[in-house]
Amino acid sequence: MLLCSGFQVSAGRFPSPRTDSHDPPSCRKRLVLPARTVPCGLRREVSCCTTLVVMVHMIESEVEEATEALLVASRALVAVAARSLADVDDVTLPQFRALVVLSRPAAVTIGDLAEALELQPSTATRLCDRLERKRLARRHPGASADRRETTVSLTAQGRRLVERVTLHRRRDIQTIVAVMSSVDRGHAINGLASFARAAGELPVVDPFGWAESE
Known about the structure:
Helix content: 55-70%
Largest sheet: 3 strands, antiparallel
Mean pLDDT: 75
Radius of gyration: 27 Å
Order of helices and strands: EEEHHHEHHEEHH
Number of strands: 6
Low-confidence stretches: 1-21, 23-38, 201-205
Strand content: 5-15%
Shape: elongated
Number of helices: 7
Strand order of the largest sheet: 1-2-3
Distance between the termini: 49 Å
Oligomer: single chain
């Protein structure tokens, strides 16, 4: 931890005013003194702390600007998702998200589905009921590895639906990306890749239905 003129800096945290400082009051007030009144021996410390405060404000501003830009971009992507389901009869976005989870090659149990979509198991069971009634999914009792859980898979109709909606989204996104300059496309690739890394490891399944089906 670095203590510097009434501010504390620790790893991963922004500087914040010290309320428990044992420095004399004159030390904690140095940042607000005019430069000409600061003794020569203290000017280096004051300059260092002033630079630190300016850098903190710059970082906060950059974070706010990046957050706003990503929110705007997310609204555009949500609009793409909504358009891709506009011509699909009687399938909601939560139901489509479930279909995408079920499109993975590995066996998916109702418990897996609930975890991927952050649902209660009972809610995931009712969701599977609706998908079965629409002939988009099929349950297989006792087909899990330990033969005690029920697995769920897509029907041929359900898989065709996932492929059609994913293709629609891909075309919409390609149309948007084609309007961007080559430089902006490069920035988008690097920026979105960096954002994904900062968000942590991506799940094996795509709960939001953006990945291409396999």
